[in-house]
Specification:
Blueprint lengths: L3 E4 L2 E2 L5 H12 L4 E9 L4 E8 L1 H18 L15 E10 L3 H19 L3 E5 L10 H4 L3 H8 L21 E5 L4 E7 L4 H11 L9 E8 L4 E8 L7 H14 L4 E7 L4 H12 L10 H14 L1
Helix pairs in contact: 1-2, 2-3
């Protein structure tokens, strides 16, 4: 059985396809990894790559992507809806097959140290890799964003885990860590009232007493002229896309607003989507192993990585 790790790095560029393409090329040209997807969002001015491979090869590909992003992205000129602190904003490592979370933690620490040493980009550790409890949450590390971190990085509270306590002149800082699979999920509201999206986000996110494993923010998305509830679902065993979609619909309708649609950013486990199909179709004793494409992909990927 192949040992597989997934990497889903986020970059602070979502409007220039040539820049994102060059970063993606740094991944796809790396030995032993498969680039599964590349997505851009102009309003958030952010892109997400998804690739898989053996642990060491994934770490090498992530490092090369970070190096390329540092060459191409100037954070002093960056603006966008999404919170961020660097050109390569965050590098999550996710154990997929034959790899433990502890191994991914060790891999993330090694990668973070390498980025700081060789690229001179200060790095922070988060989620399962966090060196301190108050750094488990990405939002805590991003507090003040790139602009605020310019000064606060010199304080003891905000010193990076690796590297000097000063931002890279153009690439800022980077966050690296091991975590379980999550789904980035957005729901659009039929209104331009971003305050409604923010109220719903507060009601549903876990830290404010909402749904377990839900992180949520409210934004206005210019290209759609609609408010958006933007979420990370960090524990699919507790809260699925269907569950959170149903809750957002209920909260919006209570204020006289309809939901116009939803979207998944990046890759998603088939189990997270098949649950919605099971619910709508009323399937009885459905086994997710019955999904043909999922079985075929597993077989092909195992053969490719051996």
């Amino acid at each position: 059985m192949a040992r597989l790790v997934e990497c889903v790095p986020n970059f602070s560029e979502g409007r220039d396809a040539s820049v994102v393409g060059k970063i993606a090329d740094a991944v796809s040209s790396s030995k032993g990894v498969i680039l599964l997807g590349s997505e851009m969002d102009g309003d958030h001015n952010r892109s997400v790559l998804t690739f898989v491979g053996t642990p060491d090869e994934v770490a090498d590909a992530a490092f090369e992507a970070c190096r390329r992003a540092a060459e191409l992205i100037d954070m002093n000129r960056h603006s966008g809806q999404h919170p961020r602190i660097g050109a390569t904003d965050v590098i999550p490592l996710i154990p997929l097959q034959g790899v433990t979370m502890e191994e991914c933690v060790a891999l993330s620490i090694s990668l973070a140290r390498r980025i700081a040493d060789e690229l001179e980009i200060p790095t922070y550790l988060y989620e399962k890799s966090a060196s301190r409890e108050d750094r488990r949450s990405l939002s805590s590390i991003r507090k003040g964003e790139y602009e605020g971190l310019k000064e606060s990085i010199q304080t003891e509270e905000r010193r990076p885990d690796f590297g000097k306590p000063e931002l890279h002149p153009t690439a800022g800082a980077t966050v690296v860590g091991a975590r379980p699979v999550l789904v980035a999920y957005n729901v659009y509201l039929g209104t331009e009232d971003v305050s409604l999206a923010k109220r719903i986000a507060r009601k549903i996110r876990e830290r404010d007493g909402g749904m377990p494993g839900v992180k949520a923010l409210g934004f206005f998305i210019e290209k759609r002229k609609e408010a958006q509830v933007s979420m990370n679902l960090t524990d699919l065993s507790m809260t699925t896309p269907l569950a959170v979609f149903t809750r957002v619909v209920r909260e919006a309708e209570a204020e006289g607003v309809s939901v116009t649609g939803s979207e998944i950013v990046g890759m998603v486990p088939v189990s997270a989507i098949s649950e919605a199909a099971e619910d709508r179709l009323g399937l009885i004793e459905f086994d997710r192993s019955q999904i043909m494409e999922g079985r075929l992909l597993d077989a092909l990927m195992s053969r490719e990585m051996e």
